[in-house]
Structures are given as C-alpha cells and as structure tokens.
C-alpha cells in the first residue's frame, strides 16, 4: 500500500489547544498524530466498510488521531486533564476507569486501557450515544494496541508542552477572579480533547441561532445572542462524565489543596430571567425576579462596568446570575428594557419558564415513568418497510429517553425490567450492568 501524504496540519492540531500561536512541541506532536492517523487509516480500511458502524470519514480519522495524541501530550506534559478524570472515577467507583479491570494500570502514565477507553468515548460521542458500542470491541482493542506501540516507543523522549501545562497555573489574583477561572473551565469542558463534543454541540446551537436570526431579521443582535449562548453553556453544561459541571472539572484538575477548589466545586449554574432593580448599599445591589418575586442581593464587585441604566425604576432587565463564594454575581450580558405593556406581555409568555428558574429539575412520578418505559419496550408501530426493533434496540431507546430519570432507570434495570440492555465483555463480564451508574450518568445529563 502506498504511503499517504501528511494528513494532519497545524490548524487541525491547534483546534484542541487553548493558546494562540504555537508551542515549541507542536511540530513533534503533529508528527505523532500523523503516524496515528496512518494506523487508523490502515486498520479501518482493512476491517470496516463504509456502511459499517465503525466507519470514519477522513476528517473523523484526523480528529480521532489528534484526540489520542492530545492524551499522550497531556500525560507527558502533566497537564492533568485525563488524570482529573481517572482520579475522580477512582474516588467514586474505586477504579481509575470504567469497564476495564486495570490490573496492571499505572497511575499518571500511559495505559492501553486509557487509549481504548478514549476510542470508545470518541465513537459514542460521534454517534450521539445512539449506538451502544462495547468498550471491549476487538477493533477498539486492536487499535489501542497498535497506538500504544507508538506511545511506548516515544514515551521516554517525548517533550513536555509547557504552554499547555501553564494554562492551568493560576496567579494569586486569578484564583479568585471568576472571569479568569471561566476562561479555563469553559475551554476544558468544550474544547479539550476529553470534552470536545460539548463544544461541537455548542457550535450547532450557535449555527441554529444564526439561521433563526436570518429568518427573523434580527441579525444585528447576533453578536450579543451568541455571547449569551456561549456564556450560558459554560455555566449550565452538565458533562458526560459523572454529571459534573465545567467548573467542577477545573476544580478536580487543580486538586483539593488548590485555593480555588471549594469555590469552583460550589459554583452554581446560571439563573437567567427578567428582574427589576430594588435598591442598593455599599456592598450589594438588590434585584427582584419579576415572575417569582424572589429578591437576590448581588455583590457590587460584580457590577463594575455594567450600564447605570440597569438600576432605573422605569426599566426592567434580562440578566443572568450565579452564586459564587456565597455571593450572587451578575454574569454575562445585561439587556435593559423600558417598562411597557409589550414587555409585560413578553414576560407573561415566559411565565412557565420563569417560574422554574430557581427550581431544580425533578423527575416525573415513578408511576408515570413506568408507563413511559412500558410504551417504549412494547412499541411495535412500524412505518412502511421498517423492520421491527429488537429488544436490544428498544432497551437502548429507554436509556436515551429524557423522560426516564437515572434512579428509576437503574432500579428498572436491576429488577430485570429491561432484559435487552447489555453489552458484554470478555469472559461473559456484564460491562454495562457492572458500570451502570457511570453509563447512565454518561447518557442521561
């Protein structure tokens, strides 16, 4: 087979990095990524057809190669991204990784199980969890084995990327600056190799926003709308791993002894709605949520730089607030509107949504979830030409359902009500059932 030309270039590699310009190590790791691409290309060409669940486009092979190389760079550079995941998984489940026994696992070094897990994770996210791939799939195992040969050969001589590691080194001032911390946790949870598909989801939402604005003739407001969407995403995203927020993952990466740890772990999500200014003193300004009447005291420190007209008696504002270090902080853009009948009508239209902004989402009553589960498992209605679903397919549809909560689903599976749900490992191991908490949190977020 003729040797292929270079496929991965600087722009492909830099897409998974948080800094501008280049680091002295980028050329080295781009070369590694191209070597991994060649392995992926060869394996998939020989093992997979273009109608196979494991088929990857050229662009997807490049992305997977960069993802796996970024893991290698992360371990070599001690940036701590994957280490944060394995340590947190170990804390909760007493094993560094789900699915694998990890009998010969070496903490903080490269491991075949890590690579195989990341391949599984890539395929699952690429297909939006619609296909329940087994982590022990032979193709994943073979691919991980081949890639580890490259990593092991390069391990002792691979250079550290100091720019990547230093991205997570915070000055004393940055440790208490929410905006500095947001820059780190937003990148970590949406653009790093471990969480990149969250960023793709955010970009899809931005694209939809752009299309809607074109249709509605509101393109002049697009910069502000995109800003708000991205800011909301950073604070309100629930990640696929252990359902932690972006801020919590940054805290875990920094470690329990870091000065910002507790504040990041307890940072609330963002509450956005229509508010009226009430009054203020030297320390706080008070705002009333119009729909619920809830008064929140907002730190004056967070109001620096915001327009003075947000405190007018004849105006209301649409704003977002987060709870940070036991104080309310205003966060993101603030839009101020003169009070009018039209504004009152707009707020009334949003009444149901506005009433719930301070409420935690609750699962449906168990009896209603029982009905939904039964309907999913018993669904036999077919469109013309459709094949009936298998028990495995209906079981996975139940896992994907947003109407079935984690506690209910876990109980139903354990009680044998979803018999088709499984992906088995070697020696008959029940991989899904043995990692039920992890997989349900991974899917249902």
Q: What is the fold's blueprint, element by element?
A:
Layout: H1 10-14, H2 26-47, H3 58-77, H4 81-93, H5 112-126, H6 138-154, H7 162-166, H8 178-190, H9 196-216, H10 222-236, H11 246-254, H12 261-265, E1 271-280, E2 284-289, E3 295-299, E4 315-324, E5 327-338, H13 341-349, H14 351-355, H15 366-378, H16 391-400, H17 406-414, H18 431-434, H19 436-443
Antiparallel strand pairs: 1-2, 1-4, 2-3, 4-5
Please summarize the sheet with the most strands.
5 strands, antiparallel
Low-pLDDT stretches: none
- How far the N terminus sits from the C terminus, by CA atoms, comes to 44 Å
The shape, in one word, is globular
Structure description:
With 445 residues, this protein is of the alpha+beta class. It has four domains: 10-166, no CATH class; 174-265, no CATH class; 271-355, OB fold (Dihydrolipoamide Acetyltransferase, E2P) (Beta Barrel), CATH 2.40.50; 366-443, no CATH class. Helix content is 49%, strand content 10%. The chain has helices at residues 10-14, 26-47, 58-77, 81-93, 112-126, 138-154, 162-166, 178-190, 196-216, 222-236, 246-254, 261-265, 341-349, 351-355, 366-378, 391-400, 406-414, 431-434, 436-443; strands spanning 271-280, 284-289, 295-299, 315-324, 327-338. Strands 3-2-1-4-5 form a five-stranded antiparallel β-sheet, with helices on one face. α8 packs across α11 (246-254). The relative contact order is 0.08.
Which structural traits does this protein have?
445 residues; 4 domains; 10% strand; five-stranded antiparallel β-sheet; globular; OB fold (Dihydrolipoamide Acetyltransferase, E2P); alpha+beta
